[in-house]
Each structure stands twice: as structure tokens, then as C-alpha cells.
Write a structure and sequence with these properties.
Elements: E1 2-8, E2 13-17, H1 22-31, E3 38-42, H2 48-59, E4 63-67, E5 70-74, E6 82-83, H3 85-88, H4 98-105, E7 107-111, H5 124-132, E8 136-140, E9 143-147, E10 155-157, H6 163-174, E11 179-183, H7 189-200, E12 204-206, E13 212-216, E14 224-227, H8 232-244, E15 248-252, H9 260-268, E16 272-275, E17 279-283, E18 292-294, H10 306-313, E19 319-323, H11 334-339, E20 343-347, E21 350-354, E22 363-365, H12 369-381, E23 384-389, H13 392-395, H14 401-407, E24 412-416
Parallel strand pairs: 2-15, 3-14, 6-7, 10-11, 18-19, 22-23
Antiparallel strand pairs: 1-23, 1-24, 3-5, 4-5, 7-9, 8-9, 11-13, 12-13, 15-17, 16-17, 19-21, 20-21
Helix pairs in contact: 1-2, 1-7, 4-6, 5-6, 8-10, 10-12
The structure holds uridine-diphosphate-N-acetylglucosamine.
């Protein structure tokens, strides 16, 4: 394992190019399993989660070829039905193969993903939605096994706009017989990207980006080519880092419309934001003012930006309250941040953050992708040296994090971990 070593404090300035979205890429790769031909994905980030998903697809019988940020997936051969525990345990998003495999093969066997560092993360809504379409599931020996005749289009009302459940049901519905309607569907830009790709491949999906998605099933999808949407979470992380380090950073190749609420919150905290065509300039002078912030499904404030925002508010001029509504265990990294001199008290799904003038560098451990990136951000703001262990988590989701931060003037490097 390696660790990030940061010598702070540093002020970020300059331009940073935003990569394609991790959460979109992973689902488009899975959707390629439904296409009996070649799918070309462009602007694919070079991150380890994409490598893992490529392994999952290869295990299932698809061929995956990578050339820089271009990925060619060919699922025209015979596919196998089983996604094994060794892979699913490394990356939860593998559960998304369930709907596509059921739709294309009529059966699927996928390891139950279990919980992770941010919560218990059940898949009941995925299964209930697919069952309503005619799939039958058994769970045994840690695997969920599904079988079905051709899936039938139905109306599904989700009790919560889950990203993963919306995607699984949506993908299955594309090859089902008849019309499906998903109500209270998730509206995240990555789902809109998935629908855009599927429509290019011959699917009939309407209501994209609204809480009601209507899918008219088709018999087969065709080869298609698609460029991945910019990563709003990566962009948001750099925007928050610019404000936290009182810097001046321009995000290039991003989609400002997908970042509206985080940018508004940064303005409330005192930042100056200039929105352009595919660009956003973020400038900050002095410490941020306090904020009250609540995470919610899109277009609400994204839970994935809660950890970096916590770092920002840990240095605000006063006390802030941050409420986490999406994942129950997403405050686990707070103890690490407190080791860096932050004053944060967690009560249930609320965190009360009393701002301090400056964090102080310390060795800390990264529990997951976003909290890991947030701790690096803490290191950029802190006085002295910070070592963030378990760097592998961060590399799952941030393309060339060290290079991009170094390009903005940060004193950060990757080194073999000491502990
Ligand atoms: C996706 C994203 C993740 C992001 C999250 C919310 C990917 C690979 N990951 O995760 O980065 O933080 O959306 O924007 O795209 N739930 C259930 N039962 C279910 C499904 C979900 O109770 O069947 C709960 C979850 O435990 C969680 C909440 O619903 O508390 C939201 O989860 P969901 O929107 O499904 O997130 P993911 O798709 O897992």
C-alpha cells in the first residue's frame, strides 16, 4: 500500500482538466453487456475501478480493449452468467450486471456485495424492481441467483430515488417486453448519460433527467459510440479544494450545470465563482463563512462531496451543521480529521463543525474514495506534513490525483506507506 504525503499548507492555483465521470463509466461498461457487438466509450478515466470493471466484464465473457481514454467493449460472444465474490467484493458497482445479464441471458448469478465503509448498502430495491418484471431470485452461499423468461415491462415506484436501483431496473427494462415506467427515479447526470448511451444503441427511453422514466422495450441493441460526461464529483472536489486553500483554480472541460448547488454553497461560503462554457473559475480570499448543508439525491447537494465540504467547514469562521441523508456511516472519517485538529462532533446523521484557524498535519487513514480525497485536502490546508494511508481507495476514483494537484502547485507525492 502507498500513502499520499502532503507538505502543507499550500494555495492551489492554475487550471485543472476534469476527467470523464467514474460513476457513469462503470454503468456504461455494464450496459455494453446488453449490446451484441462493439461499444466504444471515449473520455474514460484511468482509475482502478475502471480496471476492476473491465475484469468483471472479461470474466463474464466480453472482450475489453483500452487505448488511453478510449475503451472498446465487445460482448458479441457467448456470455457467462456469474460475477464472482473476488471481484464484487472489491467493487460494489458490479451488482449492476444483474439487470443486464437477466435481460440478455435470462439468468444471472452475482455475489451479494455486502456493506462497505459508508454504509450497509442493501440491494432490496434492485431485486424488488426486477422481480416485478418477472425475475425470480434465490440467495444462497452469499450469491444472489436470478432467472426469468423474457422480462415484462411494468410500473415501478421506488421508495427512494436510488441511483443503483434506477440503473439496474432501467437497463433490464430496455430489453423487456412492453412499456416500463420508473417513478421516483434517480436523476443524477450519470443516469442521464446512461440513458443517452442506451438511446444511441437503439433503446427507447423518455423522461430522462426527470423523476419519471418511461422505457419502451426493444428486442436488441446495436453497437454505439459515446463520450462520457464530465465527472462532477471530481470537479466539485477541486472546486472545494480551491476554496479551502484560499486559491484560484479554473476547472476545464467540466459541466457547470451539474455542479450548481455545490457552486452556490461555495459562493455562500465567500468564494467568487465565474461560470463559463465548460469552465468554472473558483477564487477565494480568507477563511470561509459558516454553512448549513444537507446531502440529498440530485439535484440536491451530493453525498460524495460531503467529506471535502467537511474539510472546508472545519476551517470556517464559526460553527456549521452538516446533515448526511444518503449513507448512514459516511461520517467515519471525522475521527481522522479531528486528529488533524478539526473540532467536529457527530450526533446521528448530523455533524456539528466548529471551525478552527488552521488544521495541523498528521498521519491519517483513508476509509474510502471520497473521504480519502477529503483527507488529502485537509493535508493541503494543514500546517506541516500529512500522510494519508491506504491511498488505493483514492486511486479507485480520482484520475492522476497527484499530478493534477501538483499541477496546481500542491506539495504532494505518493510514497510507500510506513504503516
Ligand atoms: C451511487 C454512487 C455513489 C453515490 C450514490 C448516491 C456509483 C458507483 N456509486 O451509489 O458514489 O454516493 O450513488 O449518489 O454510482 N438503498 C437501499 N436499498 C437499495 C438501494 C439503495 O436501501 O436497494 C439505499 C442505500 O443504502 C443508500 C441510499 O439508498 O442509503 C442511496 O443509495 P444509491 O442511490 O443506490 O447509491 P449507489 O447506487 O449504491
Amino acid at each position: 500500500m502507498r500513502s499520499y504525503v502532503i507538505d502543507g499548507p499550500c494555495r492551489l492555483s492554475g487550471e485543472v482538466r476534469i476527467s470523464g465521470a467514474k460513476n457513469s463509466t462503470l454503468k456504461l461498461m455494464v450496459a455494453a453487456l446488453m449490446v451484441p457487438g462493439e461499444v466504444v466509450l471515449e473520455r474514460v478515466p484511468q482509475i482502478t475501478d475502471v480496471d476492476l470493471m473491465a475484469e468483471v466484464l472479461e470474466q463474464l465473457g466480453a472482450s475489453v480493449q483500452r487505448d488511453g481514454s478510449r475503451l472498446v467493449i465487445d460482448s458479441s460472444g457467448d456470455l457467462c452468467e456469474e460475477a464472482p465474490y473476488e471481484l464484487v467484493t472489491k467493487m460494489r458497482a458490479s451488482i449492476q450486471v444483474l439487470g443486464p445479464l437477466l435481460a440478455r441471458l435470462g439468468h444471472a448469478r452475482v455475489a451479494m456485495p455486502g456493506g462497505d465503509a459508508i454504509g450497509s448498502r442493501p440491494i432490496d430495491m434492485h431485486l424488488r424492481g426486477l422481480e416485478r418484471m418477472g425475475a425470480r431470485f434465490t440467495t444462497e452461499h452469499g450469491y444472489v441467483e436470478g432467472a426469468s423468461e423474457r422480462l415484462q415491462g411494468v410500473n415501478t415506484l421506488l421508495e427512494f430515488p436510488s441511483v443503483g436501483a434506477t440503473e439496474n431496473i432501467l437497463m433490464a427494462a430496455v430489453l423487456a417486453q412492453g412499456r416500463s415506467v420508473i417513478e421516483n427515479a434517480a436523476r443524477e447526470p450519470e443516469i442521464q448519460d446512461l440513458c443517452a448511451f442506451l438511446n444511441k444503441a437503439g433503446a427507447h427511453i423518455e423522461g430522462v433527467g426527470t423523476p419519471t422514466i418511461i422505457i419502451d422495450g426493444v428486442d436488441e441493441l446495436q453497437p454505439a459510440k459515446h463520450a462520457i460526461v464530465p465527472d462532477r464529483i471530481e470537479a466539485g472536489t477541486y472546486a472545494i479544494a480551491a476554496v479551502a486553500t484560499q486559491g484560484d483554480v479554473t476547472l476545464v472541460d467540466c459541466e457547470p450545470a451539474h455542479l450548481e448547488l455545490p457552486l452556490m454553497k461555495l459562493e455562500d461560503a465567500g468564494a467568487q465563482i465565474d461560470r463559463g462554457d465548460g469552465r468554472v473559475r473558483v477564487r477565494m480570499e480568507g477563511r470561509p463563512t459558516t454553512l448549513d448543508l444537507v446531502t440529498l439525491p440530485f439535484p440536491g447537494f451530493p453525498t460524495d462531496l460531503q467529506p471535502p465540504m467537511m474539510v472546508l467547514l472545519s476551517q470556517a469562521r464559526g460553527s456549521s451543521i452538516l446533515t448526511e441523508n444518503v449513507f448512514e456511516s459516511r461520517f467515519l472519517f471525522v475521527d481522522e480529521l479531528n486528529r488533524m485538529g478539526a473540532h467536529i462532533r457527530v450526533e446521528g446523521h448530523h455533524a456539528v463543525i466548529r471551525g478552527v484557524e488552521q488544521l495541523s498535519g498528521a498521519p491519517v487513514r483513508s476509509p474510502d474514495i471520497r473521504a480519502g480525497a477529503a483527507l488529502v485536502l485537509g493535508g493541503l490546508c494543514a500546517d506541516g506534513r500529512t500522510e494519508v494511508y491506504d491511498a488505493g481507495h483514492i486511486e479507485r476514483g480520482y484520475e492522476r490525483f497527484v499530478d493534477k494537484l501538483s499541477g496546481l502547485g500542491a506539495g504532494v507525492k505518493l510514497e510507500p506507506a510506513r504503516y
